[in-house]
Structure prediction request, 365 residues.
Amino acid sequence: MNFSEIAKMKSNHISRKLILAAGLFAGAALPAHAQEGMQMPPAQVQVVTAQTRMMAPEMNVPGTVISLNDSRIAAEVEGPLAWVAEVGTDVKAGDMIARIDGRLFDIARRQAEANVKRLEADLLFREQDVARYQNLASSDAASKARLQEVTATRDMLKEDVANARALLEKAEGDLKRATIRAPFPGHVVARLANVGEYLTVGKDVARLVDTGHVEVTLPAPIAITPFLKVGEKVLVQNDHGRAELPIRAVVPVGDMVSRMVEVRLSAEAGTWVIGSSVKVDLPKGEASESVAVPRDALILKGGTRFVYRVGGDNKAEQVVANVGAVVGMWVALDGGVEAGDQVVVRGGERLQPGQDVIAQPATGY
Prediction:
C-alpha cells in the first residue's frame, strides 16, 4: 500500500466522523415540539380493582410442611429379613414393602392344621360314643356314670379342638405377617434394616411417608389465639412459591415454657415438599375496614414504596403507598387509593409516571 492510498483511507475515516457528529448535533437541536413526539409507547399492564376489605395486623412465624402419615413400619414377627423395598419406591395401601423368611411359619401352619384335623376326627368318634351310651342308658343297658364319663371326655375334646383352631389361626396370621405391607399409600424414604438381618418383634424395617396428605404445622403465641379462626386463610410462602391456606386446627393447649400453641394448616399435595420450611402470616389483632390492593401492586424503588393507579385517561399515576395491615396477598393502604381505583399488578416495574398504558384485567385475585 503506497502513501497516497493511506492518506485517502484517513481522509474517508475523518469524513465519517464529521457526518456522525453533525447528525447528533442536528438531533439535539430539534425544536421542543418535535422532541415531544418521541414519547415512550403505551405499556401493556394488568390491573386489579382496589377493594374495601376487613384487614388485621399480622405477624410472620416459621412453619414446616409435614405429612399426616409418617411411620416407621416394624416387624410383627421375628425371623431373617428376606427382602425390603428400595428407597423412593411409591407404594399403595396393601403393597408389600418387606418380607421376612416365612418357611418356619409355613411349617408351623401345616402342623397346626394337621393337629386340628386329628382332633376333629377324634371328636367325631367321641360324639358317636356319647350317642351310643345315651341309647344304652335309656334302656338301662349301661350305667349313667359311664354316660357321664364319655360325655365329659367329649366336652374336653371340644375345648382341645377350639384351642387347636386358635393355634392354627395364629400360625396362619404369623405366616401372613411375615409379608410386611404398607398401611397407607406413600413413598419408602428409608430402609431401617438390611436383607439378612434377624428381626425381632417391633424392630423397625422401613420408614413410609404419605406424600398425598400434607399439612403445615407452626407455633403461634398464645396471645394471638383469639384472632385465629378455623377455616380462615393465611398467607404461606417460601422461596419456591406462595399460597393462601386455611387454618384446620388450633390446638387448645399451650406449652408452659414457650407460651406457644400449635396451629395446623391444610395444604395441597404436590405443592409443598414435606420437610421444607415456610413463612406464615398470622393475624395478631382485630380487623378493621380498609382500602386494600394486592401485594403485587407494591413497587419498591430508592427506598420508597408506591403503586401505579390507572386513571380514565389511561395514564399511569404514581401514588406513594403507606402500608397498613397485611392479610394474605392483600395490603391495606392509608390514603392515596380509593375503593374502585384500578391499580397495576403486572408490568409496573418498567412504568414511568404519566406514561400511557393499555390495561387488561388481571386474573387470580
Summary: The two ends are 72 Å apart (CA to CA).
